[in-house]
What does this fold into?
Amino acid sequence: MTDYPFADLALARRLEAAEGDGCVGYVEARAQLTPALGAASIEVAGAACAFDGPASPITQTFGLGVLGTPTDADLDTIERFFSSRGAPTAHEVAPHAPVSLLARLADRGYRPIEVSNVMYRPAAAPVPGGQPRGPSPSVRTVGPAEAAEWGEICVRGWEAEGEFAEILRAMGPLAAARRRAAAYLADLDGGPIAAGAMSWHQGVTLLAGACTVPEARNRGAQRALLAHRLQEAAGLGCDLAMMVVVPGSASQRNAERQGFRIAYTRTKWIKS
It folds into this structure.
């Protein structure tokens, strides 16, 4: 049986640092490819603060209270960083942060708006489950020439409309341009049917962007993408893989089938 690290503060620090670094890398790529947006990041009391536009889900902090204890002056600095760019201040807060921090956020006018489960598993462990019926999807790394195609598969896979669809389309070039990151497409029957991405930081790989177009679901694309990314991550020296899901969702069920466990549940706090 593969050993899992204890779901303690040490693990939370590794996972939060990995996600923060991945989002900072995304913002750095955005700043290079779309300088007019003003994408930027800073680190305050260990927390990664990323701005990717006022409406972007990347625009928030990661690791607050886990990677360092912020003072009131630190919180002022973070709030100025976001408000000066026309964005609300949002924090993803893990349960390992001091309880006193939550009280301080409430006193400053923050309110909780969502929760998410951070999941993890050993990167080198086999992926459970058998092979799909029929041909198996093949997985390829996305280069700059396929970046737009990756974004379109994400739009179809997430069945997105309106502004969210445009955000996903814009992620294509960024997914292929980030440092310490890679994007992938799964092909079947001569064309792409699923997409995924990963980044890595100090032995942890962050898996994200996994989706399959509706007409090709249940054909093994996500298992193929997961196995391929885990193999590459292990080759890069990663011992842990992580992902973030909505509690009780189909994504969480699939992750548990594939060997992931819940490390902790985070709460997102926002101050408009």
In short: The chain has a mean pLDDT of 91.
